[in-house]
Specification:
The structure is a homotetramer of 308-residue chains. The longest helix of chain A is centred in the last third of the chain and has 18 residues. The radius of gyration of chain A is 18 Å and the shape is globular. In chain A, α8 links the parallel β7 and β8. The first copy, chain A, has 308 residues and is of the alpha/beta class. In chain A, strands 1-8-7-6-5-4-3-2 form an 8-stranded parallel beta sheet. Chain A has 12 helices and 8 strands. In chain A, 47% of the residues lie in helices and 10% in strands. In chain A, α1 packs across α2 and α4 runs parallel beside α6. Chains B and D meet through α4 of B and α4 of D. Chains A, B, C, D: GO terms for molecular function: 4-hydroxy-tetrahydrodipicolinate synthase activity. Chains A, B, C, D: Belongs to the DapA family. Chains A, B, C, D: Keywords: Lyase. Chains A, B, C, D: Pfam families: DHDPS (PF00701).
């Protein structure tokens, strides 16, 4: 099952569960994978930036990806961003053999000009091969590479195996509108747009034409709700659900600290056995944990799923 | 009236009002200045990054600052960040002569090491002179200069005229805690900490020990409420007020686009005659304006002040 | 006399002479201006990055530019790069009124995409007005903005008053070849290309099609020689002259330190009364001065002009 | 044989030889390794930035390192910089088992504050283990991490297994003087300083107290000569040798292009069978090759080793 340009819904960015001593926690991988399936996710992304991918060595990365793929019937996208094409190619071959649906590729931070970005994706597409679908990760805040709508159009047009955009530019609403306008005027073929950036603008992203979410908020049920309600035209209800979660979501979206919040909440929800990150990883102070607890308690008044 | 380390409350970051043709709108300056006084601001900051300071020439900058200073009884802080010390010195002398309470200084983006940052502030402090109080602007997202708590302590210790930190690191809650811990252990003298970053974490910043807000959200009344309620120990009420505004506040905090949102809302509130920015300035699309209108309408259900 | 696209030869980047106490040294400005005229410069650039432009306030900048313009019959280009268009416009009007031949505009470091760069120059060209010729400064090492040959072509094509490229990309030889190829294939109108970057590749830049040099090496006579010999087809002699100077030129080209070396050598040559820079400015250690003296002594064996 | 703080001489940065089709060229590895031994190198560094390390997958990296180690009696340093500690640890264990003398670690580009840099090296030192000597790579131009002399002193002091600094700051002469002054005042224990940055300042770096060179210039014989002559107090002769090579060395030191020049010259010298780089790699244009040929011909008049 390969990923296609009509993918929609919610593809959670799965964290990688670790034991406190740094070993990979396989039982939590299974439990988390099952959880995502049960709450209505339509796919999964593994080994993304929030999946602590660079902290795994090559064999571990393949093992984690394979375990998730075997466990779920959902299409699984694997992050294969790497400092060089040899490692990207090796990992891609291994995970596609294991049954992955696609790979996700972020641009290296050194890229500056439009041509450099387009050229990089052309080379990457050659390395992974024409049969492997890929997802563009557009995340300037962390990657410091800025892609205009026109550059994205060039990448999609040049590479038939580009099927999805993980959109997490910030601000990014006008970019979604621009890409959808390209499609309407016939200058861009159909492509799935799923939004990241912690979900901070998911309410409006759906209204602008996004197909859903591709991010890791610790209550992905909310993401599923917002995408569904928005698609059903229930605008006020979509915003109501979103707004109730926004105080916590905003807290989780802090750069560098967000993963610690996410894992802590997923631990409190019983999905992960531990909130451990591999080194180097910023843990939560006691005060920060108490703040998250307070936000959960307040959220629980609006959303019973948060009563953990 | 010079700024002192016991400043607290809300110092709004004032935008600079323009007519649609780019001229400075003096009537709107007066109306805005009066408005800030009426809603309980305890000070004002003019010519900050969101004040479009680099778009004014030297004479205009002095004129805008002087007009605000004459109009209000509140202490006024003037942003004097400049690519060189000659311009910083000239502007400082002019605005202090006009009655400013202090100046605010951001580090130039080229600074990297701890010693470079500390050295820059030592030179800047010499340029403005020992009688002029100054505010450190700590805003890594935009300025790409990262100051540890230890570096801030060195700057405060080295320069007796450093009286305030405009804190807008992100994430930044632990930094407030660290600085307040320095004060408790006697290694840092008292300093005012007012928080920026659009107010996105003001609810918890107050709880961590901040003295208030120094940001420009278009409903500064909410900032005043949160600071007051938090100081009074009314934690739940402070969060209730904050959470009601968070969907709009989050929309306004988009980098590059935020000022357009802020000016648009202030225009709809009747504070500014126009939401014009000087070139280059990102305007709002029709869709974005409709989104802001929608957020205002939803906010108005919780906060009657938003029924504009 | 306005600058035109057929400018060639050597336009030295003039430093701004200061007294040790930071005041502008007008006698040295005059002596330096005369010197440049005598050694065969074909133009002058004032208030460039190496002219310590940001350390001057607005009135000083106009005064320095005007003094040079009055003193020389050569065309004078004035650097007007500024954090905002208001200051750029004011300075441009003042120096053009004073008789400048053109202005030079560097892109602000925040620009990333091709469209952002092209858009910036369109706005700047509008601010200075269609009658003012301008020079693009393409200097990625310091400005962190990367312009492809295609982007430069778009800027030149969009703005009839763009007459020169100050080329200091690194590496940059292929860029000169690419731009000249654009001209041969008819896709780019004629434009002057003068090279900066301390002159480190001037020997080959001339052979690739550059029209000359636009940099500040303390022995601009060498730049004049290399441009002249290269234009005359005296390849080996051009390289001989260049190579003799390369050890010192390389020493002068150190980022952050180069201006101190340049001013020190110009002081030893009797052109400047002092090698002082305004704060903040990196001075030379005693060891560094001795190293420069040693290089001068060695250079003097090949080039009698270096026997100072 | 583990690397110790009294290492001196020339440790060439070895390129990784490839066949034109991208396969590793093992015969050239052997020939190159022998060559370095014959011309007086005192050690070797493999898998550095100029060794195209990120283009190798994990198994290839170990294979290349092991082949060099087996082939030579010189101490071999292996670059193990990686985006995460898991890969760094795996590669370190493998190459130390294979007989490496030490590993070299560059800081990731995201580090900003002094404490972040010091903390990173503490974690890296823990990952590789106390028995593995390591080399700090200090290369701000490419890595955008700026280390003060004080930060280097903290890293050396905190980690007993730090034995060498690969110094390639630019400008960097004062940094060598500062570190040696720390040793004289007793605040820093002995450490080897070998200089990189293409050798562009090796003439003075030796005089400032460096122990030698750690760079990849295609005529490492010159590096050996300069280090030897400088150590012997033959200052003028050291500079004569250096100056003769400077036009070519400067050409080879172009960022992004330098490796292509280096491999081309090593191919012309018969050391490498091909100048191929793995993708993505900037090749030389015909014009650039002709320029290198011209420089070689001119160099051959002074140094018979360049008559290739």
């Amino acid at each position: 099952m390969r990923l296609t340009p009509d993918a929609k819904g919610v593809f959670p960015i799965a964290p990688t569960p670790f034991h406190p001593d740094g070993r990979i926690d396989e039982a939590s991988i299974d439990r988390m994978t099952d959880f995502y399936g049960e709450i209505g996710a339509t796919g999964l992304t593994v080994l993304g930036i929030m999946g602590e991918a660079p902290k795994l060595d090559g064999a571990e990365a393949v093992a984690v990806a394979s375990r998730v793929i075997r466990r779920t019937k959902l299409p699984v996208v694997i992050g294969v961003s790497a400092p060089g094409f040899a490692a990207m190619g090796s990992l891609t071959r291994a995970v596609m053999d294991a049954g992955a649906a696609a790979v996700m590729i972020a641009p290296p931070p050194s890229l500056r000009t439009d041509d450099q970005i387009v050229g990089y994706y052309a080379q990457a597409a050659e390395v992974i091969g024409p049969d492997v679908p890929f997802v563009i990760q557009d995340y300037p805040l962390t990657l410091s590479v800025v892609m205009t709508p026109g550059v994205i159009r060039r990448i999609v047009t040049d590479n038939a195996n580009c099927v999805m955009l993980k959109h997490e530019d910030w601000p990014g609403l006008e970019k979604i509108s621009a890409l959808r306008a390209f499609q309407r005027d016939g200058s861009l073929r159909p492509i799935s747009i799923l939004c990241g950036n912690g979900g901070l603008f998911l309410d409006f992203e759906c209204e602008r034409g996004a197909d859903g979410a591709n991010t890791g908020y610790a209550f992905p049920e909310m993401l599923v709700d917002v995408v569904r309600l928005s698609a059903a035209g229930e605008r006020e209800r979509a915003h109501d659900v979103f707004d109730a979660h926004l105080p916590l979501l905003r807290y989780e979206q802090q750069p560098g600290l967000g993963l610690a919040v996410r894992k802590y909440v997923m631990m409190r929800r019983g999905i992960l056995a531990s909130d451990a990150q591999r080194k180097p990883g910023a843990g939560l102070s006691a005060t920060a944990r108490a703040e998250v607890d307070f936000l959960l308690e307040r959220l629980g008044r609006h959303d019973p799923r948060a009563r953990v």
